């Protein structure tokens, strides 16, 4: 139950951040940064009575059904929540705040900051094996079956929308939309990698037995022991290998410093870790 609440809390924060980016940066400046949002912005330009939020809701219904069938009910439930939450929040904002209200009317600033903010929001949502709906669902399907990064998959899908924006508005706005799509793809991948990254740690110490017990008993993590031999000394030595999150690594480093300040520690970034104690392999 706690895990589910954490997942939906993260999704909620994600679509709130995304709604802010759309409402105050992208939509008022007519920057159609791909996806259903971009399509809604284009249609809203020709039919102002239909708000961006309402357009997103109805277009999402069709793609949601596709995602539910292809990817599965678990993904569909989270996506339904995110999609309805996002479109509902934007619709609510449209009722109380005029559509032309923007943090900045400078197209370059609106593109950069709107994309960075939306990328953070979408990254939070995607990281929970969900989507904000729309063409995000198509990107998730491409990622699932062709093993592309989600951001790159989204980039491919959204290029078509930016071309339509260039035709509907001006070539300049189309180019800003294209810039937003490119930045968005990279930003999403950076956020996901940052949220899932861990430390892969190798330890060689005369106190390996104590360190091994500390990792298992205090940090509640697994540890693998390799038997090695020093190339110079020829002495046998045990090598510990474990994967920890950032907080756990700091605790381990401080512990090793206390008991053996001559220990050898090698640390590498693990951008994604799957399996017991980490992200569920099945969700992939």
From TrEMBL:
Subcellular location: Cell membrane
GO CC annotation terms, alphabetical: plasma membrane
Keyword Transmembrane belongs to the record: yes
Keywords (A to Z) from UniProt: Cell membrane, Membrane, Transmembrane, Transmembrane helix
Transmembrane portions of the chain: 7-25, 31-47, 54-77, 107-126, 146-167, 173-192
Domain of life the protein comes from: Bacteria
Residue ranges constituting the DUF2179 domain according to the UniProt record: 221-275
Membrane topology, from the record: Multi-pass membrane protein
Keyword Nucleotidyltransferase: no
CDD domains to which the protein is assigned, alphabetical: YitT_C
InterPro entries attached to this UniProt entry: DUF2179, N-reg_PII/ATP_PRibTrfase_C, UPF0750_membrane, YitT
Protein known as: DUF2179 domain-containing protein
């Amino acid at each position: 139950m706690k895990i589910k609440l954490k997942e939906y809390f993260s999704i909620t924060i994600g679509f709130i951040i995304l709604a802010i980016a759309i409402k105050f940066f992208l939509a008022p400046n007519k920057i159609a940064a791909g996806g259903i949002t971009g399509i809604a912005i284009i249609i809203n330009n020709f039919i102002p009575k239909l708000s961006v939020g309402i357009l997103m809701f109805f277009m999402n219904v069709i793609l949601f059904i596709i995602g539910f069938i292809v990817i599965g009910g678990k993904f569909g439930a989270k996506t339904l929540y995110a999609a309805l939450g996002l479109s509902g929040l934007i619709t609510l904002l449209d009722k109380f705040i005029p559509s032309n209200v923007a943090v900045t009317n400078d197209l370059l600033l609106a593109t950069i900051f709107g994309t960075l903010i939306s990328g953070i929001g979408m990254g939070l949502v995607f990281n929970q094996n969900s989507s904000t709906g729309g063409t995000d669902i198509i990107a998730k399907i491409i990622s699932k079956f062709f093993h592309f990064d989600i951001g790159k998959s989204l980039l491919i899908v959204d290029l078509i929308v930016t071309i339509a924006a260039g035709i509907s508005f001006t070539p300049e706005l189309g180019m800003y939309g294209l810039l937003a799509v490119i930045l968005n793809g990279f930003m999403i991948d950076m956020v996901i990698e940052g949220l899932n990254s861990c430390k892969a740690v190798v330890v060689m110490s005369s106190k390996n037995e104590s360190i091994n017990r500390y990792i298992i008993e205090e940090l509640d993590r697994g540890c693998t022991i390799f038997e090695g031999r020093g190339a110079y000394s020829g002495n046998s030595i045990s090598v510990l290998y474990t994967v920890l999150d950032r907080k756990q690594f700091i605790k381990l480093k401080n512990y090793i410093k206390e008991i053996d300040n001559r220990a050898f520690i090698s640390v590498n970034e693990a951008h994604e870790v799957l399996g017991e104690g980490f992200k569920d392999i099945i969700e992939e």
